[in-house]
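Person: I keep going back and forth on a fold encoding question. Show me how you would write down a chain together with its backbone fold. Please set it down just below, with no commentary around it:
Helper:
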Amino acid sequence: MSDAPDVGELTPPNRTLMGPGPSDVHPRVLRAMSTPLVGHLDPSFIEVMNEVQELMRYTFRTDNKWTIPVSGTGSASMEAAIGNLVEPGDTMLVPTNGYFGGRMESMAERAGGEVVHVDAPWGEPLDSADVQDAFDEHQPDVFGFVHAETSTGVKQPSVPELTSIAHDHDALVVADTVTSLGGVELEADDWGIDVAYSGPQKCLSCPPGASPLTLNDRAMDKVLSREEPTRSWYLDLSLLEGYWGDDRSYHHTAPITNVYAIREALRLVAEEGIEERWARHRRVAGALKAGVEAMGLGLNPEDEYWLPSLNAVLVPDGVDAGAAIDYVLDHYDLEIAGGLGALAGDIFRVGCMGHSARPENVSFLLTALGEALEAQGADVDPEAGFAAMREALNQ
């Protein structure tokens, strides 16, 4: 047998996280994670579970009983939504305008569903007329859309129009709110969303591990009346409702520390006020937008579709995006990211989410990115960017 490995103390670098996620974790959330563990059926933890559900309903803007943190990352919440709602023989309509529409497709196919598409170019939202045409042609059972597309920096407008089309065809609506929950206006009930899933590591500024999910009664009725069980035992909502519902019966050992963390993150949302939090993200990200544009850079989406929590900054001609990303990481311990798929090499993805959505972070980002671009000879004006940023923040 080999000797014990000589592994030193964990000393990760102290980064400023302004990529597509995770965002900087709020210090109060970190403190909550250091509190003592209790059992996952301990009466004190049952109380924590109840509080998390109430706080999550507030943040989703819903009265849905079936509102829980799924034990896992945002992809687990996504798979719980799609894998429970889509049965073999069902048809799911998914978008083609970003990376995460493709992930919806993959999950629906693994659940035994047939997938059809509503098309839009990467960097543009879905057009309601195209959604209407897709419904008329395919008559899907489930419709999935991405409210805030992390790969392109596009916010889907006119959500009530899309949900109305779906409901007119007796379809259920699944919304990806991973990059919008807690940072961008979202009204799950008023907009007619049947199922919404999210992740904690974006606008909630919480480590991944317990991921928000909400279903209305209509969606849960479909889950509970399936002809055959979902293919995942772990993510089977008909079993999880026994743990997160009224009975609190054992299903799995919940990630206690992650539930503590999301409870504190959601407390911060409630203390700030959800509408005030949306406004802060618009104001701080608006200053970032003004700064990069005045510097001489563009943003990928039209202003109407601009996503405050994820800014898709266009890479100037002649600039190596990867080299610029490496520069700000190496010189400033600042994380941003490049584009995915059709936008690889064309955009920088700059997050402005949760605890990272602060004026000092925007100033830091403009300094670092401006220097990285000048190092490659790009024609940018960081001073003009700073002036525009300050003006936007003072408005």
Remarks:
- The radius of gyration is 21 Å.
- The mean pLDDT is 96.
- The chain is about 40% helix and 15% strand.
- The longest strand covers residues 66-72.
